[in-house]
Specification:
- The chain has 734 residues and is α/β, with parallel strands linked by helices.
- It has 22 helices and 29 strands.
- The longest helix is centred in the last third of the chain and has 18 residues, at 648-665.
- One of its GO terms (cellular component) is primosome complex.
- This is Replication restart protein PriA.
- One of its GO terms (biological process) is DNA replication initiation.
- Its EC number is 5.6.2.4.
């Protein structure tokens, strides 16, 4: 019998980030479980707050003083079990986050708010009409309900068949129809066209058999674009479902979800859970409950779907494994790949990574034998990889071509439009002009809350901050010197769209970026419209680079390959190679041959040369040498200690104290390098000043906890004024 519980209280202060022991009142013994949400008295005033039970004890430790007791159980639902508790503890140690952060990311907000399932009145038959009620209209109503028990409510039955509500109410009054409350899932019931299974070619079959029969628990499918990785996923899932095992299929972006749904629901039907951030609170609650109650065995979703509470997990697939979206940028700053491996290990499941451009970390692990490497070097239907041409934009300037499009790309766009083919134009920058400046005095419009230039958007004639959302209307004269020499510099996706319409009148375009996909179904609508051929040209940011399969696309134009290359970040070359290779892979995916035009001012850079050759190994060998010499990931861990505050002086004083204490902590360890403290590349966001310290080295769990203690100790008395972000192996140091 458990008389005591270890509880995480719902309080965000880092000072109370620990397990508190509470007594279980006699009346609640045997009712409090691991995963229970309870009310507990907390603090000097014994305010009743929520808590989450993560441990149960028969006896309390001797040093407990002033023991308090659980007040009540908030919800009958057991929110998580022992496997999830292990995951919570793993994440807390690995990512230096709080217990509460981990619990919140594992549970949808509707669960945390005690949301209930949606109930609706549905109609069922009780007895057949007779006597005066045995009329044709009444019999028709009865038959419609009988053939679809529980499908209709009164309004839907009336609207679909034209029956009057008074007639339906008459049958209810005479108990020929009865009304029952029924749980309704708030999810789309769209029916997808059947997606038939395809016979695997020899390369696909080798990969499939290797995973099915292999004893390893981690696999990397390194398959070039168009090599048929999705069909392998489908057949792996089918095998696991037949063995009554649950499966999770993860995609990095919501933009990929429509295509995956199209294929998976087309293959397996609609009983698939979908889980991503664009869904409503109610939809996410319903999907989580479907999984929890065992009503579905397959989930497709973005990063957070890894936390769905499956009971018999057999397979986790991470498509486009290399993508930065698998690393969370908000607390807890977890890496979905590491979490997936932990979850799989907890369930004796297999993890399958798939990509044409593996992350450096995963490929390095595969080379070391920690992950089994399975390669596919040809396209599934024997289609050719597209021809890749690299255009040196310096030559275009010498030739007096000031257009967005090089002469070669302009000619290729014209030819493909005339031939009725589709085109993708990629530029990893949204908006119309990245910055607006005065040519007289050099003034640049900047965000009032962030250390960043404002981007001009022609659609609403406003300057936008892409970090905090601040907007400002531009003036015709310089706010600083009053001159009229205000100029809009650079290009964004809006400007590309305008240029296409200018140079190729009448051509229909679609744009896929953060501005056009804010709506809930925007991704799906743009994806389906382009697939149906409602536009010839799709213009987009990195959303268009990820796995989308349009058979009629024969030309891809990469307008500014240097944008990611010139970022002051250790992963800039890797991101450039991945983006160029992935976007290039959208061309020529059917019987039509494809072409890619890469526009750059750095044609000799190894990331661009290797991507033009479609040679990952060449890029990897060059990049891994640089990473080793610079002691970056995967040879070392990186911990970013990032502090933000409205008070710049307090921030600087505090982070310098943190630095001094870290220097003392590692004074005898020459393998740990401490960089900083210094302002972040973007030194201010939303009026918060930002400074950081970077630590490079090999950090075990104990060392990480000592680093965390140093930081926490320095924030004890200023925690309300300084925001802390600890990030283990961050995606970026900007």
């Amino acid at each position: 019998m458990f008389n005591y519980a270890g509880i995480i209280v719902n309080n965000e202060s880092i000072m109370v980030d620990k397990v508190f022991t509470y007594g279980i009142p006699e009346g609640l013994v045997n009712h409090v479980n691991i995963g229970s949400k309870v009310k507990v008295p907390f603090g000097k005033g014994n305010k009743k707050i929520d808590g989450y039970v993560i441990e149960l004890y028969e006896n309390a430790s001797d040093n407990i003083q002033r023991l308090k007791y659980i007040d009540s159980i908030v919800s009958a639902n057991i929110l998580f079990g022992e496997k999830q508790v292990k995951l919570i503890k793993f994440m807390k140690e690995r990512y230096l986050c709080s217990y509460l952060d981990c619990i919140r990311v594992m549970l949808p907000s509707g669960i945390l708010k005690n949301m209930a399932s949606k109930l609706e009145q549905r109609l069922y038959t009780a007895k057949a009409p007779e006597g005066n009620l045995y009329k044709k209209n009444y019999v028709n109503i009865y038959q419609a309900v009988k053939h679809n028990e529980g499908l209709y409510n009164k309004n839907r039955l009336s609207n679909e068949f034209g029956f009057s509500l008074s007639s339906i109410n008459t049958l209810i009054k005479h108990q020929i129809l009865i009304v029952k409350q029924q749980k309704i899932d708030r999810v789309s019931d769209k029916i997808y066209e059947r997606y038939e299974a395809r016979k695997l070619n020899n390369n696909q079959k080798i990969v499939y058999d290797s995973i099915c029969n292999g004893r390893e628990d981690k696999y990397l499918i390194h398959g070039i674009t168009g090599s048929g990785k999705t069909e392998i996923y489908l057949q792996l899932v089918e095998k696991n479902l037949k063995e009554n095992k649950d499966c999770i299929v993860l995609v990095p972006e919501i933009s990929l979800t429509p295509q995956m749904l199209e294929r998976f629901k087309g293959r397996f039907g609609n009983n698939i859970s979908v889980f991503h951030s664009r869904m409503s609170e109610g939809e996410r609650y319903d999907e989580w409950m479907r999984v929890k109650e065992g009503r579905t065995k397959l989930a497709i979703g973005a990063r957070s779907a890894i936390f769905l509470p499956f009971n018999n997990l057999g397979l986790i697939i991470l498509d486009e494994e290399h993508d930065g979206s698998y690393k969370s940028e908000s607390n807890p700053k977890y890496d979905c790949r590491e979490v997936a491996e932990f979850v799989a290990g907890n369930n004796q499941a297999k993890v399958v990574y798939g990509t044409a451009t593996p992350s450096m970390e995963t490929y390095y692990r595969a080379k070391k034998g920690e992950v089994r490497l399975l390669s596919i070097n040809s396209r599934a239907d024997n289609a050719k990889l597209p021809e890749v041409t690299v255009v040196d934009m310096r030559d275009e300037l010498i030739s007096n071509n000031r257009s967005i499009f090089s002469r070669e790309l302009h000619e290729d766009i014209r030819n493909n439009i005339e031939q009725g083919n589709q085109i993708i134009l990629f530029l990893n920058r949204r908006g119309f002009s990245p910055f607006v400046s005065c040519r007289s005095c050099g003034f640049v419009y900047r965000c009032r809350q962030c250390d960043i230039s404002l981007t001009y958007h022609r659609e609403d004639n406003m300057l936008h901050c892409h970090y905090c959302g601040y907007k400002e209307r531009p003036k015709n004269t310089c706010p600083k010197c009053g001159s009229k020499y205000i100029k809009y510099f650079g290009i964004g996706t809006e400007k590309v769209e305008e240029a296409v319409k200018k140079y190729f009148p009448g051509v229909k375009t679609l744009r896929m970026d953060m501005d056009t996909t804010r709506g809930k179904d925007s991704y799906i609508n743009i994806y389906e419209a382009f697939k149906k051929g409602e536009a010839q040209v799709l213009i987009g940011t990195q959303m268009v680079s990820k796995g989308l399969d349009f058979p009629n696309v024969t030309l891809v134009g990469i307008l500014a390959a240097d944008l990611t290359l010139n970022l002051p970040d250790y992963k800039s070359a890797e991101r450039t190679f991945q983006l160029i290779t992935q976007v290039s892979g959208r061309a020529g995916r059917s019987s039509k041959e494809g072409k890619v035009v890469v526009q750059t001012y750095s044609p000799e850079h190894y990331s661009i040369v290797s991507s033009a050759h479609s040679n990952y190994e060449e890029f990897y060998n060059e990049e891994i040498g640089i990473r080793k010499s610079m002691e970056y990931i995967p040879f070392n861990d990186i911990i970013n200690v990032n502090l933000n505050s409205l008070n710049e002086k307090l921030l600087i004083d505090t982070i310098r104290k943190v630095y001094d204490d870290l220097q003392i902590l590692f004074q005898h360890d020459k393998n740990v390098h401490i960089l900083g403290p210094c302002p972040c590349s973007i030194s201010k966001i939303k009026e918060l000043y930002r400074w950081q310290i970077i630590l490079k080295g090999k950090f075990d769990i104990d060392t990480k906890q000592r680093i965390k203690k140093v930081v926490y100790d320095n924030l004890k008395f200023v925690y309300n004024d300084i925001k802390l972000n600890l990030d283990v192996n961050p995606n970026t140091l900007i």
